[in-house]
Amino acid sequence: MKLITAIVNKEDSKHVCNALIKDGFTVTRLSTTGGFLMAGNMTLLIGTEDEKVDACIECIARCCKKRTEVVPSTASYGSGVATAYPLNVTVGGATVFVTNVERFEKL
Ligand code: 2BA
User: Fold this and answer.
1) N or C: which terminus of the chain has fewer CB atoms within 10 Å of its end residue's CB?
2) Cβ atoms 92, 60 nearer than 8 A
3) How much is the pLDDT for 77?
4) How far is the CA of 6 from the centre of ligand 1 (A)?
5) Which among 37, 42, 98, 99 is the best mutation to test ligand 1's pocket, defined by most ligand atoms within 8 Å of the CB?
6) Rounded CA gap, 63 and 85, in Å?
7) Tens of pLDDT along 54-101?
8) What letters, b where the CB count within 10 A reaches 16 and e where it falls short, cover 18-51?
9) Residue 35 alpha carbon, nearest atom of ligand 1
10) Helices 53-63 + 10-22 axis angle, to 10
11) How many angstroms does the Cα of residue 34 sit away from the middle of ligand 1?
């Protein structure tokens, strides 16, 4: 058995959850925050059989889009002069980790 941890954009999370459930997966959603942008995202936990991992990742890939976020940044020109300029950061579609599950119990 594997545990799939998928970090997805909040905008995609409802759609991806519905698609995963429709395909027979069980999903837990956690509200999380990205450390770099400090913006909300959604982390999905999906426990599944080894042979279904590829189908799960394909489903996530189908539902999650890449987006460009504009974040403020600063540049310094010496003598204490600094200016703010927008920086484009590409986020997603999804960041996926697959880990082995040693033991799975429902009690
Ligand atoms: P954030 O940490 O808020 O990162 C948002 C986006 O900013 C990233 O998109 C990436 O394009 C950029 N970024 C992140 N750290 C950076 C850095 N040190 N320097 C320059 N640019 C940086 P994604 O790679 O698509 O990641 C989206 C979210 O997935 C991340 O939000 C984070 O919550 C999670 N994530 C991505 N890779 C991870 C990892 N290796 N471990 C844990 N969480 C990860």
Assistant:
1) C
2) no
3) 67
4) 12
5) 37
6) 32
7) 999 999 999 999 999 888 877 666 667 777 788 899 998 999 999 999
8) ebbeeeebebeeeeeeeeeeeeebbbbebebeee
9) 2
10) 140
11) 7
Ligand 1, residue 32: give the atom nearest the CA.
33
Give per-residue pLDDT as tens, 44-61: 999 999 999 999 999 999
State both tokens at 19: 């698609």
For residue 27 the two structure tokens come to 């999903």
Would you mind telling me the total number of residues written for the chain in this entry? 107
First-to-last alpha carbon distance for the chain, in angstroms, is: 17
Residue 5 phi/psi, 5° resolution? -110, 115
Query: Which residue matches tokens 């020109």?
Result: 77
CB atoms < 10 A from the CB of 91, how many? 18
